[in-house]
Amino acid sequence: MDKILDLRSDTVTHPTPAMRAAMANAIVGDDCYADDPTVIELEQQAASKLGKAAALFVPTGTLGNQLAIFTHCQPGNEVIVGDDSHIVYHEVGAAAAISGVQLRTLDSDHGTLDAAKISRKIRHGFDIHEPKTGLICIENAHSNGRVIPLATMQAIWQVAQAENVPVHLDGARVFNAAAHLNVDVREITQYCDSLMFCLSKGLAAPIGSMLLGSEAFIAKARKKRKLLGGGLRQAGVLAAPGLIALNDMPQRLIEDHQNAQALAVQLAAIEGIEIDLSAVHINMVWLRFTREIDVDFLMQTLAQAHIKANPPEHGWMRLVTHWQITSADLSTIVSALKTALS
């Protein structure tokens, strides 16, 4: 059977052989009773590796982000967040439905928020007409594939500290950000009170994300996870591949970044394709078609080459590399797109 090259996302990865073996042999308990030893080990190692006091295993990144909002905020609070963030675009309005908060969105420069603008938007609820700012949410790496500079995160953190407002980091791909910046991940996570990162994106675990923060924050979030139906039982079979994702997979992310950069360079040379090469920070290639294309023919051509991809939206198309896309696969992808545009 021909190899399928799935470029839709880094969520499509299959667990590695080592992960499958770890799942089969996992020691389990009952996580609702807090006695699943594999989950406990994952939470402890995640907290240590990312520089926080405690961690909580959750099924998805969206649940992790929404638990953070639910835990930090009171109903009627306001959450400051970028207008192009995952929380705004791809989390189904959950902040309003679950936490009863409103999102106060700021214009973002390709994912980067301005600390001074955040400072001007913070409200303390002293006026009876105003909501209180309960949380600031930032994202790194951003879901557009760009990495936010540490200096920007530090500036936002300093504003938040001065105003006594917590900061939550949507760090779904925080290890990608660390790889791009060539820093220990704790250099990033020092500038937030809580964070979420995904085990099931570029780290290749089959399921799961981690929510991290203080011991008091995580204790509160654990109860709210139960309230939302997220209580887990023999979750060690999922935490076992998560341990491999946490400990073994971050070191190889730079390979995905290099493949994305190489792919971007080759695609940018094709007439009719435009790519901002300076924006390829992690494992995502965003390309724009500069002339009219037949989308049906494009997708059929990719399918015939055994390539899965999401179709263009408003002229833009995203291709994502991961551990199952090798450097040897890049020529197949480039050839298929050349054919589609010929």
Descriptive overview:
With 342 residues, this protein is of the alpha/beta class. It has two domains: 17-248, Aspartate Aminotransferase, domain 2 (3-Layer(aba) Sandwich); 252-341, Aspartate Aminotransferase, domain 1. The chain contains 14 helices and twelve strands. The strands form three sheets. Strands 2-8-7-6-5-3-4 form a seven-stranded mixed β-sheet, sandwiched between helices. Helix 2 (37-50) packs parallel to helix 11, helix 3 (61-72) packs across helix 10 and helix 12 runs parallel beside helix 14 (330-341). The mean pLDDT is 97. Its cofactor is pyridoxal 5'-phosphate. Homotetramer. This is Low-specificity L-threonine aldolase.
Chain-wise SSE layout:
Blueprint: E1 5-6, H1 17-24, H2 37-50, E2 54-58, H3 61-72, E3 78-82, H4 86-89, H5 94-99, E4 102-106, H6 115-121, E5 133-139, H7 150-163, E6 167-170, H8 174-181, H9 186-189, E7 194-198, E8 209-213, H10 215-227, H11 236-248, H12 253-268, E9 273-274, E10 284-289, H13 295-304, E11 307-308, E12 316-320, H14 330-341
Parallel strand pairs: 1-11, 3-4, 3-5, 5-6, 6-7
Antiparallel strand pairs: 2-8, 7-8, 9-10, 10-12
